[in-house]
Predict the structure.
Amino acid sequence: MKKVLVGVLMAAMAVSLVGFGAKPADAADVKTVEAGKLHMATNAAFPPYEMTTDDGGYEGIDVEIATEIAKKLGLELVVDDMDFSSVITVVQTGKSDIAMAGLTVTDERKKNVDFTDSYATGIQSIIVPEGSDIATADDLADHMIGTQEGTTGFFYCTDDFGEEFVLSYPNGATAVQNLLAGKVDAVVIDNAPAQAFVEANDGLVLLDTEYVTEDYAIGVSKDNPDLCAAVNGALKDLIKDGTVAKIVEKYIPVE
Ligand code: GLN
């Protein structure tokens, strides 16, 4: 009698253990760079999408969305912080699972990685010093423009205004420092970090002009279509149930 009871109890415990450890029903059994982890390649100097915290961690819209995606797949998120210009390469070469970095979908990048659905819109914006004679994107002509290395802002500016007029820096903060030092006349960068940089530094103005509008999505290795499908499925669910909107609203409150 006792033995039977113990057996039943053990069976019940086993079921509940499986229940706790089980992946959500919609999570595919996907292969990742490191078992049990989802490695996210990003440049954590791109507020409010990704930035470092005082205690050495990471936060931001992309970090929180990726955390939720990882959870849905039964994985733990690991942030791999690097220069923006490396995020696609590390995914391509199997060192990180996803590139999530306010990453704009472009035809050129589609040759190197697969993209999920888009989860946010970015606008290439223009920061100038107070009193600048630059008021529109066309006015950038014949001026020195600061950009971030490997970004769409760099590619648009070199195409439109010529390579000799465009300098690129490892991240937005450095580009802005060079604008403040008078090394460049304007900085072209995505609107959300642009706003953060203008708020954090006196003497800068964000022009009320949309140079280029673009879609942000997550890049996944072309060699791992199952992971791309699983990440996209999780993302779709998080968009549908309002989680993505809630996270965006937390960092970019609607006025
Ligand atoms: N959205 C831009 C791009 O994809 C910049 C992203 C970034 O600097 N993190 O090129």
Confidence is low (pLDDT under 50) at residues 11-26.
